[in-house]
Design a protein that fits this description.
This protein is mainly alpha-helical and 138 residues long. 80% of the residues lie in helices and 0% in strands.
């Protein structure tokens, strides 16, 4: 495993912890729609960090698409009784699966994913430009 992959994975662990902390802090401090909407966006951001942790060389667009598809799958699965039943048995399962469908979450998952796709794209572009300088810079 290359040093770059190790650094990316470490960054993803730190980022996931930061997003989780921000989500719980928002929930503790605020009440109402901001708490709800930010929760869905932070959830997507955490899933993004997990995807990049597993596949560090994945392109931002593919990672973002996978994250949105996964989040929507989980959200629409909540239209069945399965996630709710599992969530009643475990706090951890409730964090992963949720308990009830909310159409607003479907809109906010892409907000969390797209913001990380943009940041990932920017960082990747900057890293590539540093490793492959243009002829004018040489």
């Amino acid at each position: 495993m290359s040093l770059a992959v190790r650094w990316i994975r470490l960054l993803m662990v730190v980022s996931a912890a930061g997003f989780a902390g921000a989500a719980y802090a928002t929930r503790a401090i605020m009440d109402g729609p901001i708490e709800q909407y930010s929760g869905a966006a932070f959830s997507a951001a955490i899933v993004y960090t997990i995807v990049i942790f597993i596949w560090p060389r994945l392109s931002p667009l593919v990672a973002g698409g996978a994250v949105i598809a996964y989040c929507w799958f989980i959200e629409f699965a909540q239209l069945t009784p399965v996630p709710g039943a599992i969530s009643q048995r475990s706090w951890f399962a409730r964090q992963l699966l949720g308990a009830q469908f909310d159409l607003v979450d479907v809109v906010w998952y892409p907000v969390g994913a797209i913001s990380l796709v943009a940041a990932h794209w920017l960082l990747r572009t900057r890293a590539r430009s540093r490793s492959h300088p243009s002829p004018a810079e040489s």
